[in-house]
Amino acid sequence: MGRINAMLLALVIICALGVITSQHHARKLFIDLEAEQLASKKLAEEWTQLQLEQSTWATNKRVEAVASKQLGMQLPESRGTVIMNADGSRP
Q1: Beta strands of the chain (E only): which ranges?
Q2: Which of the two residues, 43 and 68, has the higher pLDDT score?
């Protein structure tokens, strides 16, 4: 009888250690999951900010201002503009 009790006690201790280990592992994984979700949220916010910035930089007014100021480009004069049909003839 004493031998069975000792075996059962050892089995209970092993099971208890297994439960403690699995709970610790689950808590650690949950902390890692929360950290990754936070990083994902930050990246999504940064992506939204970058899309907004890109749309601001690509506006026609901004492109025209950069072309005229930094590149010295100008709109062509109307007398220098020639309109042609698709077949190459003038209307």
Answers
A1: none
A2: 43
